[in-house]
Write a structure and sequence with these properties.
55% helix, alpha+beta, 980 residues, 3 domains, Serine Threonine Protein Phosphatase 5, Tetratricopeptide repeat, three-stranded antiparallel beta sheet, six-stranded mixed beta sheet, disordered C terminus, globular
Length: 980
């Protein structure tokens, strides 16, 4: 079989492998974070968060146009699947080309085998890396962005091969024919801007490859190796990187951000852009007719970038139609510039700016310094900054170590778990010590991935081997690796307490390292071949033994380890979560949400599945922006009318943080609500509970303390002012538009209205009925019926993988159901309350979705209050591994009051249920875990119970002081907000 045919068959195999892998594990519907938003905006051609992704949106729209409605989300997810499959194919091709640079083909076919083997190992390794696989199976821009990166890297490698062949012969009058590839690369960069700007970082790799073809000199190499002492070479390389930087800045921010702004300043932006386009076209014509080859190539490439970038026109065109999702409302030149410059996210200093002052222990706006790393003024960030001695320490330990190197090791060494902040591991317990996280359920166990650092070692060997054999291409890959890793870290200048792990941002860096894994596999195979030379002809057969071992040891083992926690098939949590929240509110409701995960899924449900389009979702983060408040005030959204906002537009434009001292707020209540005909709030409850005036103390958000009086001085955000105005408008309108807060909204965001919130499922309604329940008042005529409509698809299926974020969010259901069921039991509806909890435990068992302190105790409390102590004990027994794990942590880190309270609750449950044998075993296990002798007997535990209970009522009473979650420790604010 000739080399080309072999390459074709291997290419088909690699692409098929990747496609099957991703099709089997792709999410069937929307996922949390940005995926729901991207599916919604692709399906409806709407405007996503800045700076937008118009080309991705157009491709997603194309995929969703020809499928039934129930397959729309899957079809958009398939965009990522196919992009990722093609990326893996390109990775294979790139590695083969890199290997051909220093391992020429031979007649025996051994070299050809080496090329394909390295390509397969590197490509298949990258295919199953943690971060790339995560992006490959959901609707996100990163899979397509990585495709553009791989495509331009492969194209420049192809250009270098063609250009060298042409340079060995002659040039035509327009330059190299291979330069057509450069023009294609320029066009792809223009398109890539409409997906994600990360792809532009490949410019530095392209610049070096171009340099080594056009300007390389033989005297920079001695005996086949680089002459590291050649100053001329380093100056030339540095110059090429400077040129790449200039080109990069010319595209971003030049073309991407500054060009629309300059056009807008003319007063005739469309005319200005047309004139600019005409000028570039004239430059192309002029340089071609005058045979100015370099100028012509630059002009044509600039034109191609602009043509590719023109996909952004769809953003502004669609925004003018005022779609339901229209973020930043980029219709005017000023709004367009704001959108492209991401103004709503603020500015981050990179080279110079104000910084944290170690001497004062606070942020100092006058402390201007170079390379500021601790630049945020947020109090929660400042408290973290105090833990570091300097900016340099913060950079090395947090930004580089925690936010990049940890992710790098996740992908090539191993990952302990999927919880936030999980450390990297190797798989050797001697090195990393005991587990830091408890892994009870199948999903928790699946999240532990161990590669024994084999991919890491093979990659570093490949880097060393590559530099020894072909330093030019090796140096180019190194620059790509650093720019897409450390370079992003320097640019982002991230603050602590990120809302999620950010490993997806550095996938291009992991791609570059995977190239070295493929090259390392070939180098290792060559070492084996050299060691077996004495075996003569048999050495070729022994290579066929070594090759599968290398493949199975790295990409094969990684695929086995990673498959279970990257398989999203059967997962419907995000759309069900959105459905349940929307079904929790009354018709025409206003629903305040907090972050991405309680907003984007709701947008998806409304825009794609058509669920409850009468509900107006108001995101509290976006309410800090004037454009969003104006949209809510003036625009319809499907079946929802504009919101009752009375703030003048001039005041809306000036919304921002305001200093606030605690003050009393009042809202009048329409007397009509007190009439017998009104059923707005009360249902079965006494109508006398409605306050004639709502009154509460607004404290705002913690900020600082008055140095003179010592009194707290808090902040009221622009979103708080807008939300208060909306609530006041709803109250003035007799609550015809019910107002809700999602249960995920923090106490700060609820405007101190806790005593007027009514729990109705996944949302809490503002009602003029004062109460003192920290989890919200339950209306028995409303809340249970809402909960019965909830969807919990596959949450009882232990074969479906649920990550830590999902497990935490789903666990919140238990607290809501338990609060409602307990209210039913206390109101005498015992059977209905227990039926509600039995249904929940059947749909969300603890064996699939683990619980925390609060959910275990609140769930058990329902059965205790109903007198079913055996069931309560059965539930709390499942929490014992959690308790033992926390006790182990206590032994290492110090005492925890919550652990002690939890221990007492479980002990009391044994005694209540009359299981004294179990109580003794539990007590002995606890004592042994803290180093004490465990010799407690069942009779001793029975005696302890009799010291508290009357013997005749031992199995009936449940009034032990430490048996229920009314303990003071469990009513700490952290636990009151368990539904967070």
């Amino acid at each position: 079989m000739n080399s080309k045919r072999a390459g074709l068959f291997v290419s088909i195999g690699v692409f098929t492998y990747a496609t099957i892998l991703y099709v089997l594990t792709v999410a069937p519907t929307a996922s949390f974070w940005d995926a729901g938003e991207f599916i919604a905006i692709a399906h409806g051609l709407q405007v996503s968060h800045p700076p937008g992704a118009p080309f991705y949106m157009l491709v997603g729209r194309l995929f969703s146009m020809f499928v039934p409605e129930d397959l729309i989300s899957l079809s958009v997810n398939m965009v990522s699947v196919l992009c990722s499959s093609f990326t893996i194919l390109l990775t294979y091709w790139i590695i083969v080309r890199l290997l051909r640079e220093f391992i020429p083909s031979n007649t025996e076919g051994t070299a050809t085998f080496m090329h394909h083997f390295g390509g397969v190992v590197g490509a298949c390794t990258f295919a199953v890396t943690d971060s790339f696989w995560f992006n490959a199976v959901e609707a996100e821009v990163y899979a397509m962005s990585m495709l553009f990166t791989a495509l331009v890297v492969w194209l420049i490698m192809k250009w270098s091969e063609m250009a060298r062949e042409e340079l060995a012969n002659s040039r035509d009058r327009l330059g190299l024919g291979a330069n057509r590839i450069l023009i294609l690369v320029a066009y792809l960069f223009g398109l890539a801007i409409g997906v994600h700007l990360l792809s532009l970082l490949a410019l530095f790799f392209i610049a070096l490859i171009f340099f080594f073809v056009e300007y390389d000199r033989e005297d920079w190499t001695v005996s086949g190796r680089p002459d590291w002492k050649s100053a001329a070479r380093w100056r030339a390389i540095l110059l090429s990187l400077v040129v790449a930087t200039v080109v990069f800045l010319g595209i971003y921010p030049g073309i991407v951000q500054k060009l629309p702004g300059l056009a807008g300043q003319t007063g005739q932006p469309l005319l200005a852009l047309l004139l600019l386009g005409g000028a570039v076209v004239f430059a192309v014509w002029y340089t071609q007719t005058r045979e100015k080859q370099t100028a012509n190539l630059v002009s044509v490439c600039l034109l191609m970038v602009l043509i590719g970038y023109s996909s952004y026109a769809v953003i502004f065109i669609r925004s003018a139609a005022d779609p339901p999702i229209d973020e930043n409302d980029p219709e005017t030149p000023a709004a367009i510039v704001s959108y492209l410059e991401r103004e709503q996210y603020g500015e981050t200093p990179i080279l110079q700016g104000p910084n944290f002052n170690n001497r004062t222990g606070n942020f100092d706006p006058d402390n201007i310094k170079l390379f500021p790393r601790r630049h945020s003024v947020a109090p929660q960030h400042v408290s973290i900054y105090r833990q570091y001695d300097s900016d340099t320490q913060f950079f090395w330990q947090y930004q580089l170590g925690h936010m990049y190197l940890r992710y790098f090791l996740w992908n090539f060494s191993g990952r302990e778990s999927d919880v936030e902040g999980a450390r990297a591991i190797t798989g050797f317990s001697v090195i990393e010590g005991p587990k830091e996280t408890l892994q009870q359920t199948p999903s928790e166990r699946a999240s532990r991935n161990r590669y024994f650092a084999l991919p890491l070692l093979l990659g570093f060997f490949g880097m060393f081997y590559h530099f020894r054999r072909d330093w030019r291409r090796a140096f180019s890959v190194l620059v790509l690796f650093l720019v897409t890793g450390v370079g992003i870290i320097l640019y982002l200048n991230q603050t602590p307490l990120q809302p999620r792990e950010r490993d997806y941002s550095y996938v291009a860096s992991f791609f570059a390292f995977s190239l070295w894994i493929g090259i390392g596999a070939t180098g290792l195979l060559q070492l084996v071949r050299d060691a077996l030379e004495n075996f003569g002809e048999k050495s070729r057969y022994l290579l066929w033994v070594a090759a599968p071992l290398i493949f199975l040891g790295v990409p094969g083992w990684m695929a086995i380890e990673n498959y279970d926690d990257h398989d999203r098939s059967g997962r419907y949590v995000a759309p069900d979560y959105a459905y349940n929240m929307l079904m929790s509110v009354a018709p025409n409701a206003i629903l305040f949400t907090n972050g991405d995960n309680d907003t984007f899924p709701l947008w998806y449900a409304q825009e794609v599945e058509g669920v409850r389009r009468d509900v107006r979702v108001a995101n509290l983060s976006l309410l800090n922006t004037p454009w969003y408040v104006r949209q809510l005030k003036h625009q319809y959204s499907r079946e929802s009318t504009p919101l009752p906002i009375n703030l003048p537009d001039e005041q809306i434009d000036d919304l921002g943080p305001t200093l606030l001292r605690p003050r009393t707020m009042t809202l009048p209540v329409n007397p009509a609500l007190l009439s017998e005909e009104s059923e707005v709030f009360v249902g079965q409850m006494d109508r006398d509970m409605i306050d004639t005036t709502m009154s509460w103390t607004l404290t705002g958000r913690p900020y600082t303390t008055d140095p003179d009086t010592g009194e707290p001085v808090n902040l009221l955000y622009g979103a708080d002012i807008a939300a208060l105005d909306i609530i006041r408008g709803a109250a003035t309108g007799s609550w015809e538009r019910p107002v809700y807060f999602a249960v995920t909204v923090s106490p700060d965001g609820r405007l101190d209205l806790e005593n007027y919130l009514q729990l109705e499922g996944q949302a809490m309604r503002v009602v003029p009925i004062r109460h003192d329940d920290p989890l919200g008042r339950v209306e028995l005529g409303i809340t249970p019926e809402r909960l019965k409509t909830f969807r919990f698809r596959n949450l009882n299926n232990s074969e479906v993988y649920y990550d830590a974020n999902i497990r935490r969010m789903v666990d919140n259901y238990r607290n809501i159901f338990a609060q409602t069921a307990a209210t039913l039991v206390q109101g005498g509806q015992v059977d209905e309350g227990l039926g509600l909890m039995d249904h929940l435990l059947e749909q969300i068992p603890f064996t699939t979705i683990p619980g925390d302190y609060v959910s275990f105790i609140y769930t058990a409390r329902v059965y205790q209050e109903a007198g079913d102590y055996a069931k309560a004990l059965e539930i709390l027994k499942q929490s014992e591994p959690l308790l033992m794990h926390r006790l182990d942590l206590n032994n290492a880190q110090g005492f925890d009051d919550y652990v002690f309270t939890f221990l007492q609750t479980i002990r009391a449950a044994y005694l209540q249920a009359g299981d004294f044998e179990g109580a003794a075993a539990f007590e002995n296990k606890i004592r042994e875990s803290v180093g004490e002798e465990g010799n407690v007997t069942a009779e001793e535990m029975r005696a302890a119970a009799l010291g508290i209970f009357d013997e005749d009522s031992l199995d009936e009473t449940h009034n032990m002081d430490q048996s229920t979650p009314q303990d003071s420790a469990l009513l700490d604010p952290e636990y009151e907000n368990g539904v967070q």
